[in-house]
C-alpha cells in the first residue's frame, strides 16, 4: 500500500559544500579555474595528437580518447554546480539528475577501460616489439575503444534503469555537488537491496576486472624488462610506461578514496571532497602528467603554440 510520502518528485536539491556567500564565491572561482584548465589541457592533448603525424600511433590514439573522456567526466558535473552557485539555486530536475548519473557513469567507466587498453598497448609494445604494428593495427585499436565505450554505456544504462524503478520521498536533499548514484539511492522510500546488489556487482566488475588486466599487463612487462641486458634499455622500456603508471595510480587511489569515504558513516562532506579529487583534479592533472613526461607530446604542443622546438 502506498503512503503519503510515496510521490514521484520532480526535482532534487544539491546542497554542495557550503551556504556561506563568501565561500560560495571562492568555490565558484576555484572550480571554474580547474574546469577551464581541465578542458584546455585535454583539448591541447587531442589537438596535438590529431595534428602531428608523428603521434598517429596506437598509444597516442588511446591517449586522445582518454583526454576526451576526461573532458566529458568533468563536464557532466562541474558546469551544473557553477550554474547553481551563480544563480543561487540548488535545484536539479529529476530528469536532469538521472541524465547526469547516466553520463557520469558512462565517461568514468570509459576512463577505466581505456586505462586497461593502454596497459595492453604497453604490453604489446615492450613484450612483442617486432609484431607491435601488426597486432595493434587500426582496426583493433578502434574496436578496443568502441568496446570500452559499449561496456561502460551498458553499465550506466543498467544503473539508470534500476534507479528509475525507485520511488522517492518528498524533500530530497543530496549532500553533494552533483547527483551521486549512492547518495540518490540512499534517499529512496523503499527497500533498495536489489539496487545495492547491482551497484556493488558493477563496482567489482568495472573496478576489479580492469585493474586485474592492468596488473597482468605490468607483470608481463616487468618480466620482459628484467630480461633486457643493458641498463639503458631497461630505463627506455620503463620510461614508456611511467606516464601511464602515474595516471593509473592517481585514478585508482582517488577512486578508492571515494569508495571508502562513501562507505563510512556520516561522511557526506568527506565523500564530496573525495569526489572532487576523482572527478575534477584527476582529469585536470592527466594532461600535465603526459605532457611533462613525454618528449613527443611536449614537442607537438610547442609546435601548436608556436614555441621553437629545440
Automatic annotation (TrEMBL):
Classification via Pfam families: 7tm_4
Protein name: Olfactory receptor-like protein OLF4
Transmembrane regions: 26-47, 59-79, 91-110, 130-154, 198-216, 237-260, 272-292
InterPro entries assigned to the protein according to its UniProt record, in alphabetical order: GPCR_Rhodpsn, GPCR_Rhodpsn_7TM, Olfact_rcpt
Native source organism of the sequence: Ursus maritimus
Keyword Transmembrane found: yes
Compartments in which it is found: Membrane
Single GO cellular component term: membrane
Topology in membrane: Multi-pass membrane protein
Molecular function in Gene Ontology: G protein-coupled receptor activity; olfactory receptor activity
Job description of the protein: Putative odorant or sperm cell receptor.
Domain G-protein coupled receptors family 1 profile: 41-290
Keywords assigned: G-protein coupled receptor, Membrane, Olfaction, Receptor, Sensory transduction, Transducer, Transmembrane, Transmembrane helix
Chief localization: membrane
Amino acid at each position: 500500500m502506498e503512503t503519503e510520502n510515496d510521490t514521484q518528485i520532480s526535482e532534487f536539491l544539491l546542497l554542495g559544500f557550503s551556504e556561506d556567500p563568501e565561500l560560495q564565491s571562492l568555490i565558484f572561482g576555484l572550480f571554474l579555474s580547474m574546469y577551464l584548465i581541465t578542458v584546455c589541457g585535454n583539448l591541447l592533448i587531442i589537438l596535438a595528437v590529431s595534428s602531428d603525424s608523428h603521434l598517429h600511433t596506437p598509444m597516442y590514439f588511446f591517449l586522445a580518447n582518454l583526454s576526451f573522456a576526461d573532458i566529458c567526466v568533468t563536464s557532466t558535473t562541474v558546469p551544473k554546480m557553477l550554474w547553481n552557485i551563480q544563480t543561487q539555486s540548488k535545484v536539479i530536475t529529476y530528469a536532469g539528475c538521472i541524465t547526469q548519473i547516466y553520463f557520469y557513469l558512462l565517461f568514468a567507466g570509459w576512463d577505466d577501460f581505456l586505462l586497461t587498453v593502454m596497459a595492453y598497448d604497453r604490453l604489446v609494445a615492450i613484450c612483442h616489439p617486432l609484431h607491435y604494428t601488426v597486432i595493434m593495427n587500426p582496426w583493433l585499436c578502434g574496436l578496443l575503444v568502441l568496446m570500452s565505450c559499449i561496456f561502460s554505456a551498458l553499465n550506466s544504462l543498467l544503473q539508470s534503469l534500476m534507479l528509475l524503478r525507485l520511488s522517492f520521498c518528498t524533500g530530497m536533499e543530496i549532500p553533494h555537488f552533483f547527483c551521486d548514484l549512492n547518495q540518490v539511492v540512499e534517499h529512496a522510500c523503499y527497500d533498495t537491496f536489489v539496487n545495492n546488489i547491482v551497484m556493488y556487482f558493477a563496482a567489482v566488475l568495472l573496478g576489479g576486472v580492469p585493474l586485474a588486466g592492468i596488473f597482468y599487463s605490468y607483470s608481463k612487462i616487468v618480466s620482459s624488462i628484467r630480461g633486457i641486458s643493458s641498463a639503458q634499455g631497461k630505463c627506455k622500456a620503463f620510461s614508456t610506461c611511467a606516464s601511464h603508471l602515474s595516471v593509473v595510480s592517481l585514478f585508482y587511489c582517488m577512486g578508492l578514496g571515494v569508495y571508502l569515504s562513501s562507505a563510512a558513516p556520516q561522511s557526506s562532506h568527506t565523500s564530496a571532497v573525495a569526489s572532487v579529487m576523482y572527478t575534477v583534479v584527476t582529469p585536470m592533472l592527466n594532461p600535465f602528467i603526459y605532457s611533462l613526461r613525454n618528449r613527443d607530446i611536449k614537442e607537438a604542443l610547442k609546435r601548436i603554440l608556436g614555441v621553437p622546438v629545440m
